[in-house]
Amino acid sequence: MPPSDPLRTFATCAGRLSAQMEFEWMFDGAASEVTQDRRGEVLDILDAMTPPTQVRDVLNWRIEAKMAHSSLLQRTTFSDDSRIQMQARRLSVQKLKSCTALLLG
Q1: Number of helices and strands in the chain (H, E)
Q2: Euclidean distance between the first and final Cα of the chain, in Å?
Q3: CA 49, 55, 58, 63: dihedral to nearest 10 degrees?
Q4: Of 84, 102, 75, 83, which Cα lies nearest the Cα of 17?
Q5: pLDDT value at residue 1
Q6: Tell me: the pLDDT tens digits for 47-102?
Q7: pLDDT value, residue 29
Q8: Residue 30's pLDDT band (boundaries 50, 70, 90)?
Q9: Which one-letter DSSP state was computed for residue 103?
């Protein structure tokens, strides 16, 4: 199903992928290169579709999504509760898959 607001969807995905990439820099350097490429693809699409009147909105959506995803990733590693770790990991993977599914290839 197509996103209801493609601009916000791609902005959110850019934020999530930024958080994922930075997390992988610390814990899985090789994976960060793949994430960086995907993030670049999302940013290219986002840049092409962002009207000048919504640049601030897009930046805000990206930052909000990045912070939320970063918080989720922190729980996957640093939570003392293994159930919370597993739920956070499952949710972070699900959210990233929904973003990468928007890309060709």
Answers
A1: 4, 0
A2: 18
A3: 140
A4: 102
A5: 41
A6: 999 999 999 999 999 999 999 999 999 999 999 999 999 999 999 999 999 999 99
A7: 80
A8: confident
A9: S
Distance CA 22, CA 92 (A): 14
**What DSSP line would sit under 72-89, residue for residue?**
HHHHHHH-S-HHHHHHHH
- What's the CA gap between 102 and 51, in Å, rounded? 20
* Backbone dihedral angles phi then psi of residue 27, each to the nearest 5 degrees: -120, -15
In 3D, which of 95, 102, 98, 88 has the Cα closest to residue 49?
Answer: 102
DSSP reduced 3-state for 104: coil
Long-range Cβ contacts of 11-14 (<8 Å, 24+ apart): 11/46, 11/57, 11/58, 11/59, 11/61, 11/62, 11/65, 12/61, 12/62, 12/64, 12/65, 12/99, 13/42, 13/65, 13/98, 13/99, 13/102, 14/39, 14/42, 14/43, 14/46, 14/62, 14/65
| Nearest in space to 38 (alpha carbons), one of 54, 16, 9 | 16
